[in-house]
Sequence to fold (769 residues):
Amino acid sequence: MLLLFIVIPLAMAALMPLVSRLWKGLPDILGTLTMAALLALSLSQIRLISAGHRILWDAAAIGLPLKAGLMLDGFSLLLLLTISLISLFACIYSINYMEHYGAKGSYYALFLLMVAGMNGLVLTVDLFNMYVFLEVAAVASYALVAFGQKHDEVEAAFKYLMLSVVATTGILLAMSFIYLMTGTMNFKELGLMVGTGMSLKLIGLCLALFLMGFGLKAAMVPFHAWLPDAHPSAPAPISAMLSGVLIKVSGIYALTRVVYDIFGLPASVSQAMIWLGVASMVIGALIALGQNDFKRMLAYSSISQIGYIVVGLGLGTPLGIMGALFHLFNHATFKSLLFLDAGATEYATGTRDLSKLGGVGHKMPITSLTTTIGTFSIAGIPPFNGFWSKLLIIVALVEANHVGVAAIAIATSILTLWYFLLMQRKAFFGKLAAGLEKVKEVPFYMALATFCLAALCLLVGLFYPWVTAKLIQPGMIALSNSIGANGFSMFGQ
Amino acid sequence: MDVINLILLIMLAGLACMAVFFKDLLRAALSLAFMSAVLAVVLYRMDSPYAAVFELSVVAGLITVLFVSTIALTKTEEAVKESRWPMYLFPLFLVLFGLIDLLVMKGLFSNIPAGYGNAEKSFGATLWGIRSMDLIGQIAVIFGGVFGVLALFREKPLTAQDKIEAEKAKDGGHKLW
Amino acid sequence: MVMINLIFVGLLFFIGLYCLLTSRNMIKLLIGLEIMAKSAVLSFITAGYARGETFFSQSLVITFIVIEVSIVAVALALVINAYKNTGNLDVRSLTRLKG
Fold:
């Protein structure tokens, strides 16, 4: 049953070239239907997971004599839901946006492959398997970033590829050292074996390589250099997917699985994650202030928000994990909303330069409204969803005696509000800039996608108790159980 | 002390240095292919014949073909001028790194404890039985490569704006350097 | 034997990384990438040999080689696209995005 999450998008991706020759509109319909089916599937699993259970799926269940296994626990389900939701809306948005790129068959095929890779990543029980699906999603994303074949996009995709491959080779070396010392690649078995067999120095080396590799995929400072080029150059729905889902799945989810399930969150890693998170928060926000390009500003803002999530996960306290997981879900919704809005603005006006935009709020009411909702969510203003997750993280920091970091988090939040309000004022309110008289509202599906995401931000913010109890808590329980399981102290802690 | 293994590994490292510092791209690609052949022999001597034959046929064969066709498709009148200093400073860095490497590896991997067994009767049982999810991943990544190359090689009709942009980029590339 | 192999794994990784850091030709960058991938292959097979589980490590390596082929294919497609856009293979002509 869990295999369907991987096999359905894979099969549809394989069929896309045939489908696109039959009828021009068919790739759109099939892509959107596939995403809707995946979303329905993931929603149906909520009931089963809510008490902190895990679902284990064995190939033997469908009669195949294989030993493959997939696992779904609270953390995986949260990410599965996030992937399905954001990809559904990005698909709806692409119906109109990708018209002038052409080759929709290839586009949807790559998109579905990226989703299949991400689904496989969150469902797997095996470290090397996780790497395989990470590369599946990454290869699809390299091609998607360069989809327009123009100079900027190819440059961004090339830099992204180079940096990403260095990171994954580092991860591979660490995996081979772990395999050398323990003889297994299964998460559960590794969690039991790592404490006994490996010397502390080797664990330190492997952890450093993992932090560097997954930190680059998650775009944490100082490994963030590829993100400000890649996310603005990609087509808008792909930017939404990259910034909203891919950096979280291949970066944060993978890092958390490795650090929590295998190593049990040692104290030194906890410190390192908090420091890296703080650096990402501050540096991302500061550089975002000086940006003139709408999407580049959003990219730096992503780096900043990832810092919050990493700080929360680095803390390791139940409240910190809950805040981090909630912020992961929220950031996926409002960041993809903002990227889709930026794409809508570019589609309608032809430019991303904030100094050239101005006062299009009257001409594009829906986009203006949804961008405002996105701005309030990301800045942490009640009753939108960003407020609750940031509050959780800040309270967790204070509770764990990291008051300085909490103060930095609050200050960064104010900074976020500032540069987003600046952007709003420049782009949407104020006088209509020259040359923008003929701007009109974006086509139906683009408006529908952004409107649904904005409504989601508001609803999650209003109904946050239900969301935290049903979706976030199982994930937190699943992760908290792994902390300290290995009981080894590192570096004289 | 396994002398043959040591000789093969030194050849590997030597060919890698040649591949990095050859000015002619074709010679660099061919040293890469030769590296794959030597690596295949090393793997075969380590009881891994299947991996050796895969390395030989896929990396020394397929990837070298890809490299050579790309080199043929991207011939320019003037080759890219590499700077001189990396080649002169390289031996220094290599020796430095080699010393660190020696000390680190000796310290880290002194004894290898026994662990979980992954013993299966045959190679096929291991690949298709235990690692079957990897096979699904392989299929997905092959599709990804195929569709990616298809998407990146499609011909679009150039608009007038595109032609102007291409001219600007070409001038920027040549004039600056 | 295992120890010497691991030392060369580190050396090969360093040589590949050096190529990536100091080359100006895009195809040379991909050659550096390939050298690093070979170091990973050597590392996995050494680990399998040291534990006596060659079947397991060979399965991992075969999967990794397939992934490597796809990455190189997409990377070369990107290089050809960059060549079409700029007319040369110099990585320094890809510095338009800044800030």
About this structure: Chain C touches chain B through 73 residues (CB under 8 Å).
